[in-house]
């Protein structure tokens, strides 16, 4: 009887294994079909890799790395990864912690004694820098816009762009995504290691993980087999080469390049404790602040399935690493186009096929339809559609679409999309602040003042709005 029971258990386990394998094959086939279909209409340019338990299940390339010379993307094509590089910076900090060179509770001044801002030096901790609660601003500001990009070559060069800025809020009080915070982390890495940031991550992250096709752009060197970034302002636009970051070197906040295969190696090295200990990784992906961000990793949960990783987006750059904790999937998507130019569709579709329909994917699809209605039928039609959506929209993707028009100097359209946004999400101080910035850039001082005040009504600690109003009123 005992032998029969064991035999039945073995049979059941074998059947379950076969069913799971078939389910995976079916999911991959659907993903493949979708990608083939949209690529026929130039709907995606980039690479996709899906692995499970370190075994690659799917990898393909689509579109062109260089349109002018008809060079197709290949699976080993290098792409810009923008803020995905924050994962490398955070891992470097954890390595230094394991070596006893810092603690997460150390204040900036305990490491960088000559930091020029007293409040940052005495109040901001390493942990707050990692989780974006430091109150530091950003370096994508007027100084950056007017600076020759080839002159931004070091972490110190980036620091000079914001070192005199006041904090947006008291450290630890709220979450506000901060590229500047990760520049300060880069300075900490350089100070404690005695070498520059770029050499540190090369020696201590890329080399141990076997990432031979990953690095940071260097102003004076060309990079073989790298995709050009392409942008277009709307569905009726034409592809043009992005020049926004041309010449600037990457930083500890982002701006490296990599391949889908190298990012798989990075994920495997993390999971196998090649780079940091199991305990350190657990700290990095714990959602202690319940805001969906750990130490250099975004944290998501789709239908109970925990996923960690990071995305990156810039002009002609989009991508993400997703590591599924419960299902052992590793998914890497990289594109040489903006997020709304096919990449989000692909990322959302893969997540839905692997984890099921989620609020995030539903919000994106609704927002995409809303933007298309605006571009084809106009503002009033979009507002009418918005009223049927019950607030089920994505602020991120509406702002991305508005930003395209800002870059093209089509401020009327940028303002329209942001007015749609604040109509749909009327309780966001940040959205009103962005709307005010756009009105100001468009030359409408009155509407800028009005919307800075509306932002302050929602958050009286918005230092950016306070400073702008001091200049405008």
TrEMBL record:
UniProt TPR repeat ranges = 429-462
Instruction: Tell me the ranges covered by the Beta-lactamase-related domain, including all copies.
Output: 32-338
The record's section on SUPFAM superfamilies has: beta-lactamase/transpeptidase-like, TPR-like
Provide the transmembrane region boundaries.
none
Q: Name one GO molecular function term.
A: hydrolase activity
Q: Which InterPro entries match?
A: AmpC-like, Beta-lactam-related, Beta-lactam/transpept-like, TPR-like_helical_dom_sf, TPR_rpt
- Taxonomically, the superkingdom here is Bacteria
Keyword Membrane annotated = yes
Question: What subcellular compartments does it reside in?
Answer: Membrane
Keywords from UniProt, A to Z, are: Hydrolase, Membrane, TPR repeat
For this record, an example GO cellular component is: membrane
Q: What is this protein called?
A: Serine hydrolase
From which organism does this entry originate? Flagellimonas lutimaris
* Native organism taxonomy: Bacteria, Pseudomonadati, Bacteroidota, Flavobacteriia, Flavobacteriales
């Amino acid at each position: 009887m005992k032998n029969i029971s064991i035999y039945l258990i073995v049979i059941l386990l074998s059947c379950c294994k076969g069913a799971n394998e078939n389910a995976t094959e079916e999911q991959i086939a659907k993903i493949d079909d979708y990608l083939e279909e949209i690529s026929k209409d130039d709907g995606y340019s980039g690479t996709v890799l899906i692995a499970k338990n370190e075994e690659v299940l799917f990898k393909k390339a689509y579109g062109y790395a260089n349109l002018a010379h008809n060079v197709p993307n290949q699976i080993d094509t290098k792409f810009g990864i923008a803020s995905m590089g924050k994962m490398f910076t955070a891992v470097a900090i954890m390595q230094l912690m394991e070596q006893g060179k810092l603690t997460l509770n150390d204040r900036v001044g305990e490491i960088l004694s000559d930091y020029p801002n007293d409040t940052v030096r005495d109040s901001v901790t390493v942990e707050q820098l990692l989780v974006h609660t430091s109150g530091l601003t950003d370096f994508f500001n007027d100084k950056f816009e007017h600076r020759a990009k080839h002159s931004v070559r070091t972490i110190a060069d980036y620091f000079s762009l914001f070192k005199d800025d006041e904090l947006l809020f008291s450290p630890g009080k709220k979450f506000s995504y901060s590229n500047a915070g990760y520049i300060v982390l880069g300075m900490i890495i350089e100070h404690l290691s005695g070498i520059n940031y770029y050499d540190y991550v090369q020696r201590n992250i890329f080399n141990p993980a076997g990432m031979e096709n990953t690095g940071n752009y260097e102003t004076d060197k060309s990079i073989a087999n790298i995709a050009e970034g392409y942008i277009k302002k709307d569905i009726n636009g034409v592809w043009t080469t992005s020049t926004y970051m041309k010449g600037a070197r990457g930083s500890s906040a982002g701006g490296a390049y990599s391949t889908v295969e190298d990012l798989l190696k990075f994920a495997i090295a993390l999971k196998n404790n090649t780079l940091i200990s199991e305990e350190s990784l657990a700290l990095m992906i714990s959602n202690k602040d319940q805001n969906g961000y750990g130490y250099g990793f975004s944290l998501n949960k789709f239908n109970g399935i925990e996923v960690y990783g990071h995305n990156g987006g810039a002009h002609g750059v989009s991508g993400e690493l997703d590591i599924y904790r419960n299902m052992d999937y590793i998914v890497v998507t990289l594109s040489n186009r903006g997020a709304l130019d096919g990449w989000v569709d692909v990322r959302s579709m893969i997540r839905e096929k692997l984890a099921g329909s989620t609020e995030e994917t539903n919000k994106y699809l609704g927002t995409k339809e809303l933007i298309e209605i605006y571009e084809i039928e106009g503002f009033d039609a979009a507002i009418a559609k918005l009223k049927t959506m019950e607030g089920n929209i994505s602020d991120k993707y509406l702002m991305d679409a508005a930003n395209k028009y800002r870059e093209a100097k089509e401020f009327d359209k940028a303002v329209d999309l942001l007015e749609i946004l604040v109509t749909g999400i009327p309780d966001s101080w940040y959205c009103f602040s962005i709307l005010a910035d756009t009105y100001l850039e468009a030359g409408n001082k009155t509407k800028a003042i009005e919307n800075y005040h509306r932002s302050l009504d929602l958050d009286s600690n918005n230092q950016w709005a306070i400073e702008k109003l001091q200049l405008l009123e």
